[in-house]
Amino acid sequence: MSNDESRGSRIAPAIAVGALFAVLAATVNGATFGFEAVGFPADASIVHNLGYALFNLGAYDVATVPAEGFLAAFLIAAVALDVAVDGAVYLAKREEDGSVIAAVGGAFTDGGRDGGDRR
Fold first, then answer.
1. Which of the residues 25, 59, 95, 116 has an alpha carbon 20 to 30 A from that of 9?
2. Are the CB atoms for 61 and 49 separated by under 8 Å?
3. Over the stretch 66-93, which tens digit does the pLDDT of each residue have?
4. CB neighbours of 53 closer than 8 A, spacing ≥ 6?
Protein backbone atom coordinates (compact mmCIF):
# COMPACT_ATOMS: atom_id res chain seq x y z
CA MET A 1 0.00 0.00 0.00
CA SER A 2 1.44 3.39 -0.89
CA ASN A 3 1.47 6.51 1.23
CA ASP A 4 -1.29 8.12 -0.85
CA GLU A 5 -3.72 5.26 -0.17
CA SER A 6 -3.04 5.10 3.56
CA ARG A 7 -3.23 8.89 3.81
CA GLY A 8 -6.64 8.92 2.14
CA SER A 9 -7.96 6.28 4.52
CA ARG A 10 -6.96 8.40 7.53
CA ILE A 11 -8.68 11.62 6.46
CA ALA A 12 -12.27 10.46 7.05
CA PRO A 13 -11.68 9.34 10.69
CA ALA A 14 -9.76 12.55 11.39
CA ILE A 15 -12.66 14.65 10.09
CA ALA A 16 -15.12 12.57 12.16
CA VAL A 17 -13.06 13.06 15.32
CA GLY A 18 -12.77 16.79 14.67
CA ALA A 19 -16.53 17.09 14.12
CA LEU A 20 -17.25 15.13 17.28
CA PHE A 21 -14.90 17.37 19.26
CA ALA A 22 -16.61 20.48 17.84
CA VAL A 23 -20.05 19.16 18.83
CA LEU A 24 -18.81 18.28 22.31
CA ALA A 25 -17.15 21.69 22.78
CA ALA A 26 -20.27 23.51 21.60
CA THR A 27 -22.45 21.45 23.96
CA VAL A 28 -20.27 22.12 26.99
CA ASN A 29 -19.92 25.80 26.11
CA GLY A 30 -23.67 26.26 25.71
CA ALA A 31 -24.73 24.28 28.76
CA THR A 32 -25.99 26.08 31.82
CA PHE A 33 -25.17 24.29 35.01
CA GLY A 34 -27.65 25.37 37.67
CA PHE A 35 -25.33 25.07 40.62
CA GLU A 36 -26.06 27.24 43.57
CA ALA A 37 -23.70 28.05 46.37
CA VAL A 38 -24.03 25.09 48.70
CA GLY A 39 -22.05 23.96 51.67
CA PHE A 40 -22.17 22.82 55.23
CA PRO A 41 -22.77 24.94 58.31
CA ALA A 42 -19.61 26.50 59.71
CA ASP A 43 -19.93 24.68 63.03
CA ALA A 44 -20.64 21.22 61.51
CA SER A 45 -17.99 18.54 61.82
CA ILE A 46 -18.07 16.00 59.00
CA VAL A 47 -15.69 13.66 60.83
CA HIS A 48 -17.78 13.81 63.99
CA ASN A 49 -20.98 13.02 62.09
CA LEU A 50 -19.24 10.27 60.13
CA GLY A 51 -18.20 8.58 63.37
CA TYR A 52 -21.74 8.74 64.74
CA ALA A 53 -23.11 7.31 61.47
CA LEU A 54 -20.45 4.57 61.45
CA PHE A 55 -21.44 3.31 64.91
CA ASN A 56 -25.17 3.99 64.39
CA LEU A 57 -25.38 6.54 67.19
CA GLY A 58 -28.10 8.64 65.61
CA ALA A 59 -30.18 8.45 68.79
CA TYR A 60 -27.92 11.05 70.41
CA ASP A 61 -29.25 13.67 67.96
CA VAL A 62 -25.91 15.30 67.22
CA ALA A 63 -26.01 14.75 63.47
CA THR A 64 -26.18 18.20 61.90
CA VAL A 65 -24.96 16.84 58.56
CA PRO A 66 -26.42 13.67 57.01
CA ALA A 67 -23.28 11.52 56.83
CA GLU A 68 -24.64 8.31 55.30
CA GLY A 69 -23.36 9.27 51.83
CA PHE A 70 -19.94 10.01 53.27
CA LEU A 71 -20.04 6.71 55.14
CA ALA A 72 -20.51 4.73 51.93
CA ALA A 73 -17.57 6.51 50.28
CA PHE A 74 -15.44 5.99 53.41
CA LEU A 75 -16.12 2.25 53.50
CA ILE A 76 -15.53 1.81 49.76
CA ALA A 77 -12.17 3.60 50.07
CA ALA A 78 -11.26 1.46 53.10
CA VAL A 79 -11.98 -1.77 51.20
CA ALA A 80 -10.03 -0.55 48.15
CA LEU A 81 -7.00 0.33 50.30
CA ASP A 82 -7.20 -3.04 52.07
CA VAL A 83 -7.21 -4.85 48.72
CA ALA A 84 -4.22 -2.77 47.59
CA VAL A 85 -2.21 -3.63 50.71
CA ASP A 86 -3.10 -7.33 50.45
CA GLY A 87 -2.06 -7.32 46.79
CA ALA A 88 1.24 -5.62 47.62
CA VAL A 89 2.02 -8.23 50.27
CA TYR A 90 1.14 -11.03 47.86
CA LEU A 91 3.31 -9.55 45.10
CA ALA A 92 6.21 -9.06 47.52
CA LYS A 93 6.55 -12.83 47.92
CA ARG A 94 9.15 -14.51 45.73
CA GLU A 95 9.62 -18.08 44.68
CA GLU A 96 12.88 -20.01 44.99
CA ASP A 97 13.09 -23.61 43.84
CA GLY A 98 9.31 -23.88 43.56
CA SER A 99 8.64 -22.80 47.15
CA VAL A 100 7.08 -19.52 48.17
CA ILE A 101 9.19 -17.44 50.53
CA ALA A 102 7.78 -14.45 52.38
CA ALA A 103 9.21 -11.03 51.60
CA VAL A 104 10.32 -10.56 55.22
CA GLY A 105 11.57 -14.15 55.61
CA GLY A 106 15.23 -13.13 55.67
CA ALA A 107 14.72 -10.44 58.28
CA PHE A 108 14.24 -12.93 61.09
CA THR A 109 17.26 -15.14 60.35
CA ASP A 110 20.96 -14.84 61.01
CA GLY A 111 21.58 -13.42 57.55
CA GLY A 112 23.17 -16.57 56.11
CA ARG A 113 26.07 -16.88 58.55
CA ASP A 114 27.26 -20.36 59.32
CA GLY A 115 26.47 -21.66 62.77
CA GLY A 116 23.72 -19.21 63.51
CA ASP A 117 25.83 -16.98 65.77
CA ARG A 118 24.47 -13.50 66.30
CA ARG A 119 27.24 -11.04 66.89
1. 25
2. no
3. 777 778 888 899 999 999 999 988 887 7
4. 63, 67, 68, 70, 71
